[in-house]
Amino acid sequence: MPARPSSRPARAGAAATLGLGLVAGVALLGAPSASGHGYTDTPISRQKLCANKTVSDCGPIQWEPQSVEGPKGFPALGPSDGTICAGGHAEFAQLDNPRGGNWPATSVTSGQGYNFRWQFTANHATTDIKYYVTKTGWDPTKPLTRSALDPQPFLTVAYNGARPAMTTTHQGALPSGKTGRHMILAVWTVHDTPMAFYACSDVQF
Predict the structure, then answer these.
(1) Model confidence pTM above 0.85
(2) Is residue 30 part of a domain?
(3) Any idea what the Cα angle at residue 89 is, between residues 33 and 130, rounded to 5°?
(4) Residue 171, exposed/middle/buried by CB under 10 A (0-12, 13-18, 19+)?
(5) What is the H or E stretch that residue 29 is in?
(6) 180 belongs to a structural domain
(7) 14 is a domain residue
(8) What tens digit of pLDDT does each residue of 76-86 get?
(9) For position 191, which CATH number holds?
């Protein structure tokens, strides 16, 4: 009776293929996320400063500045105080670190018109985009909280479900009566998900 061919090589090949698949899966899990959606670059946001390598020691946000996504409904809902700039994500906590109030700041002029610009990697259907600014006397050496912001946005751009262009500029007047260092918080509310995107920009009036 002829000997049966050994199945060992086939089994070894299958095991090797499985091993390669597991390695590839682990590599993908460890890679920076390519998903994401948008950020402000005028005035430049903290996440874009990290992506540009203008600011170091930023952690994973340097690879995905577009991914600062958190619950919508700000200020009643949304990320908790002290985690707003990171959208509530612990892995992006470097964005909430005030760094002694020494983040690079964009020079702006109180009361004058300004072009606020977004760069989108996925331009979702949008409810609106709102811009808030910190109160006079806020402390730039502490993480951002709701109580540090003027209660009403100084600029609201309604979309009512429309999609913004991949590069979008909003023209509006900066609030009057501001001097010194402040922060502008931009909140992009997605229309058809429970989420919004957050971008903190340090400015010098």
Answers:
(1) no
(2) no
(3) 95
(4) exposed
(5) helix 8-30
(6) yes
(7) no
(8) 999 999 999 99
(9) 2.70.50.50
